[in-house]
Amino acid sequence: MSRFREHRAVAVASLAAVLLMAVSGCSAIDSEPADEVPGTTSETSTPSEPMETAPEDTGERWQISMEGIGPFTVGMRYADALTAPGADVSETCTGVAGASPSDDQWSEDVSLWAVASQQDPSSTVTEITVSVPADAAPEHAGEPPLTEEGIGLGSTVDDVMVAYPDARELDDTGIPGRSLYYVQGDSAGLVFTVEPERGVIWQISVTTGDLPSYEPCA
After folding, report:
1. What is the separation of C-alpha 59 from the centre of its chain, rounded to a whole number of angstroms?
2. Are 189 and 170 contacting, i.e. CB atoms less than 8 angstroms apart?
3. Which candidate, 115, 148, 118, places its Cα nearest to that of 130?
4. CA distance 207 to 92
5. pLDDT in the model for residue 197
């Protein structure tokens, strides 16, 4: 009788072990999935679009300042002016370099030149001038190059006086039909040349001299 009880006890223990394993397996299947590792996702992420680079503002790149116009500055070596970055440059005559932006942003009637001291090619630049024919100046109002205050070819005398209250008119230019308005800077002056009848600017110069050159290659 005791042997029967022993066999029964073993059978019950075995059945209990099987039931325990079954219950454990179901619990593992029904349990919630483990939390995802921070910074990961179960879904496939879509790569972000590359940011577009803003185009370079060529107007600002050719701004007129008290130091120069675009890549040309007073005091730079004339030899360096002949290879100024972003510009098409050619020597108009000895010591005078004609130039325009390489990207052709200016009209064909806009001219720029850089003049060496006493037109000596071995010296430094003392004047940078940009101009258009006087009768065409009004058509260029608001177009680059402009000063930081927004004054450019085609601007009026009134515009200049508002932007530069210290501007003074030069009494004697030595050239009939030409009025000049001068703004003094630290190392150079900003000179606006005006066609008197219209009162419109057709030439702007940055120069270390009192007056800009008149037909430097004449």
Report:
1. 8
2. no
3. 115
4. 19
5. 85
Q: Identify whether the C-beta of residue 87 lies closer than 8 Å to the C-beta of residue 45.
A: no
Q: What would the DSSP string read from start to end of 20-86?
A: HHHHHHHHHHHSPPPPPPTT--SSPPPPPPPPPPPPP-HHHHT-B-SSEETTEETTSBHHHHTT-TT
- ∠ Cα 64 68 69 (to 5°): 50
Residue pair 121/115 in contact (Cβ under 8 Å)? The answer is no
Ordered DSSP codes for 150-197? S-BTT-BHHHHHHH-TT-EE-S--SSTT-EEEEEE-SSSEEEEEEETT
The number of angstroms, rounded, from the C-alpha of 42 to the middle of its chain's C-alpha atoms is 43
**Location of structure tokens 């800009």:** 212
Q: Phi-psi bin for 215: left (phi > 0), alpha (psi -120 to 50), beta?
A: left
pLDDT tens sequence across 4-57: 344 444 443 443 443 344 444 444 444 444 454 444 444 444 444 444 443 344
Residue type, 64: I
Confidence of residue 171 (pLDDT cuts 50, 70, 90): confident
Q: Which residues contact 158 (CB under 8 A, 6 or more apart)?
A: 199
Contact by Cβ (8 Å): 178, 172: no
pLDDT in tens, 200-218: 999 999 999 878 888 899 8
